[in-house]
Design goal:
alpha+beta; elongated; about 80 residues; three-stranded antiparallel sheet
Length: about 80
Amino acid sequence: MKPKDFINGPVTYDAHGGQYFWINKPGKDAGVQMLAELRGWGAIQHLDVSSPEAFQDEIGKFIADAINEKLEREKDVNT
């Protein structure tokens, strides 16, 4: 099994207190599957940013976007 076999749907980041990444599964397995949790608060809270909480959410969205872009790029190559 390859990672993209498990991550078989778009990834979203839950910025509402959970800091979780979710796989939004399509088709007969429709629903959500937890993929990972964003960690790093120990360092982020000490950064020189106006809102560490908002910055953590920006990082989470960035990572989710990066995963989705990679999956889309590999799908185009394999079709």
